[in-house]
Amino acid sequence: MDVAKHSVHTLVFRSLKRSHDMFLSDEGTLPPDDADAKKMRERCKINSEYWSVKDIARPKDAVKAVGTTTASKSKVVDERADPSQAVVEYRASGAVAGKSATGPSSSAKGALVPRRASEMPKPKWHAPWKLMRVISGHLGWVRSIAIDPSNQWFATGSVDRLIKIWDLGSGKLKLSLTGHISAIRGIAISDRHPYLFSCGEDKTVKCWDLEQNKVIRHYHGHLSAVYGVTLHPSLDVVVTCGRDSTARVWDMRTKACIHTLAGHTDTVSSVACRAMDPQVVTASHDGTVRLWDLAAGRTLTHLTNHKKSVRALALNPTENTFVTASPDNIKQWKFPSGNFLQNLSGHHAIVNALAVNADGVLVSGADNGSMHLWDYRTGYNFQKLQAVVQPGSLDSESGIYACTFDRSGCRLLTCEADKTIKVYKEDDTATEESHPVEWRPDILKRKRF
Q: How far, CA to CA in Å, does 132 sit from each of 2, 139, 424?
């Protein structure tokens, strides 16, 4: 028997036609309803959406208790579709049965009224800040700054491998310290010892004796550039962080590495210490912030809310909170568990530096020279400044790499890419009438992260 041979194209179309004829006839016909499944769906919906009122809204019980007519029965049955109305009618019928309408029923009805959305609290007025002085002397980008505990001088570290010490009042150069062989990325001055600590891209951490103006200790252990250094406020401990994705805890006197705080997967850009647990906080380019147990050398809390690299970190001097900065947002957190408080949105740039003073002024400085000043409590941006480069510099050299307030909180110092240090102060002539707060009460839309 000969079998007719057909092309693949013909066979495919025949198969399509058979499928079309088989299923098209009842394409729009739905399967019959399952009564048990429908009842189960209604019970699940009542338990999930009307759990708070399902025990109160019992139309049949209400009809029996009050002895309503047939017309009222139909009304009560209709109320089953709207539980909130059923609650009101049931309470009203209870009043007919002998309960006062102003008793417990009114409080129960009030509990079902939706709460009004919270509004942003009014921000505190802060005087605007203005440029007071420009200090030049470095031959490269100024990357770090630290203020003396006596508030008389400050130190800066630069890409020109020099640490310069300046008079805070006059801005004059007092001293230059040489010793690093690469860019200096971090500086810290001890409150309890005559020591200055510096770190740089040469993988070294140095301790300088300010009475002799020379290096007295080296701390070896980092495998790559060291980007930050900080001191513990009550212990003789130095904490550094760097490009090897670790933070290291050093004994100040013995130079021993007490802990290597490992866990980040990218450069650790910033580190801060505090007296209470968690005593160490680190921010990294992997987009995370970690709170560390200093005694055990392990992570207490791992915060992953940021979407991009976290380049700046600052502790609030008066509150038990801290703030971190990333190109996506500036975020506030609460110690000790790292609870998220709020976002400070609006600084659309790569934020390199943060500083907070005791008056509640938060400053964020970015790589494009923009500087925003915020009310710390409410997150209101009350001033925006743009750094002006010194004559002879390119416009692209307006980046801000570090900033800090002096010990009084009245002067702000910024380190910039045009090789200068700029000093800002509050405008003494400003008043609430001349510079009012442009604040409009709005519904507070807090994000979860």
A: 103, 22, 5
Q: In what order do the strands lie in the sheet with 153-158?
A: 142-147, 153-158, 162-167, 173-178
Amino acid at 310: V
State the burial class of residue 29 (Cβ atoms within 10 Å of its Cβ: 0-12, 13-18, 19+).
Answer: exposed
Phi-psi group of 327: left, alpha or beta (phi > 0 → left; psi -120 to 50 → alpha; rest → beta): alpha
Write the CA distances from 70 to 35, 87, 370, 413, integer angstroms: 28, 20, 74, 81
Rounded to 5 degrees, what angle do the CA atoms 417, 421, 426 make? 120
Q: What angle do CA 109, 114, 117 make, to 5 degrees?
A: 150
Which helix (H) or strand (E) is 78 found in, with range?
Answer: helix 70-78
CB atoms within 10 A of CB 272: 18
The partner residues of 332 in beta bridges, in order of sequence, read 323, 342
Amino acid letter, residue 102: T
pLDDT tens for the chain, 449 residues long, are 566 777 888 888 888 888 877 777 666 677 778 888 888 888 888 887 777 777 764 555 544 544 544 444 444 444 444 444 444 444 443 443 444 444 444 444 445 555 554 556 788 999 999 999 999 999 999 999 999 999 999 999 999 999 999 999 999 999 999 999 999 999 999 999 999 999 999 999 999 999 999 999 999 999 999 999 999 999 999 999 999 999 999 999 999 999 999 999 999 999 999 999 899 999 999 999 999 999 999 999 999 999 999 999 999 999 999 999 999 999 999 999 999 999 999 999 999 999 999 999 999 999 999 999 999 999 999 999 999 999 888 888 899 999 999 999 999 999 999 999 999 999 999 998 888 888 776 544 555 55
Question: Exposure string (b/e) for 180-199, b if CB count within 10 Å is 16 or more?
Answer: beebbbbbbbbeeeebbbbb
Phi, psi of 207 (to 5 degrees): -110, 120
